[in-house]
């Protein structure tokens, strides 16, 4: 773990826990609780992000705590080396999956630069808020902007819709924008050209 932590730090990324230890970290790829069904990160337990993104996430956490002291952001994924991205892509590549896993040979995804974060909200008394699908679910229930249609079609509940809108509003206040196909994925830098200002974690 120390080696990977050091490597991520070399790319100018920050362990967000050093900025706000109240943010919960549950890296799904450091366990078997993900679409790969295996641990991809070894012992890594720290979430590394580009400084500006980390700062905006911290501000969102502060707003959340002001609203309700029992609520907290939970980071599900953060910076991801290109080598791991390649394994993930090779496992699921295909026309019906490409929208969910970025092609490592096309400049990689935003996670591979440390400028994307996957997260949700948890209530420390009762657990994660229901969002209508699991993290890393490959299907329309994960898509953003169609919540009302999903509700009308019986695919998610009204409570799911309310929880998603709550998350969206919290993050958008910090100018963090969701990915169209993943309710959990947020970025500040959203254009492909933005990647030029950051280092691809090609290891």
Model description:
This protein has helices spanning 2-10, 51-67, 82-92, 147-152, 158-172; strands at 14-15, 24-25, 48-49, 71-77, 117-123, 127-128, 177-179, 182-187. The chain is α+β, with helices and mostly antiparallel strands and 203 residues long. It is globular.
> So how many helices?
5
Number of strands: 8
Could you state the order of secondary-structure elements as H and E? Answer: HEEEHEHEEHHEE
Radius of gyration: 16 Å
Give the overall pLDDT as a whole number.
95
Low-confidence stretches: none
* Large-scale geometry: globular
Please bin the fraction of helical residues.
25-40%
Largest sheet: 6 strands, mixed
Assign the structural class, choosing from mainly alpha, mainly beta, alpha/beta, alpha+beta, or little secondary structure: alpha+beta
Strand content: 15-25%
Rounded to the nearest angstrom, the distance between the terminal CA atoms is: 15 Å
Topology:
Blueprint: H1 2-10, E1 14-15, E2 24-25, E3 48-49, H2 51-67, E4 71-77, H3 82-92, E5 117-123, E6 127-128, H4 147-152, H5 158-172, E7 177-179, E8 182-187
Parallel strand pairs: 2-4
Antiparallel strand pairs: 1-3, 4-5, 5-6, 5-8, 7-8
Which terms would index this structure?
alpha+beta, 5 helices, globular, 203 residues, six-stranded mixed sheet, 29% helix
Question: Brief overview, please?
Answer:
This protein is α+β, with helices and mostly antiparallel strands. The strands form two sheets. Strands 2, 4, 5, 6, 7 and 8 form a six-stranded mixed beta sheet that branches. The chain has a two-stranded antiparallel sheet with strand order 1-3.
């Amino acid at each position: 773990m120390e080696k990977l932590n050091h490597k991520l730090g070399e790319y100018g990324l920050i362990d967000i826990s050093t900025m706000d230890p109240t943010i919960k970290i549950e890296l799904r790829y450091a366990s078997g609780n993900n679409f790969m069904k295996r641990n991809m990160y070894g012992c890594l337990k720290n979430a590394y992000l580009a400084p500006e993104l980390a700062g905006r996430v911290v501000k969102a956490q502060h707003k959340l705590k002001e609203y309700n002291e029992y609520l907290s952001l939970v980071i599900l994924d953060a910076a991801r080396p290109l080598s791991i991205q390649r394994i993930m892509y090779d496992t699921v590549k295909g026309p019906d999956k490409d929208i969910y896993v970025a092609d490592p040979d096309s400049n990689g995804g935003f996670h591979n630069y440390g400028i994307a974060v996957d997260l949700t909200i948890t209530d420390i008394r009762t657990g994660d808020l229901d969002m209508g699908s699991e993290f890393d679910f490959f299907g329309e229930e994960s898509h953003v902007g169609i919540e009302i249609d999903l509700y009308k079609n019986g695919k998610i509940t009204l409570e799911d819709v309310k929880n998603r809108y709550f998350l969206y509003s919290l993050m958008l206040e910090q100018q963090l924008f969701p990915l169209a196909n993943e309710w959990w994925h947020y970025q500040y830098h959203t254009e492909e050209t933005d990647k030029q200002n950051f280092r691809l974690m090609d290891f």
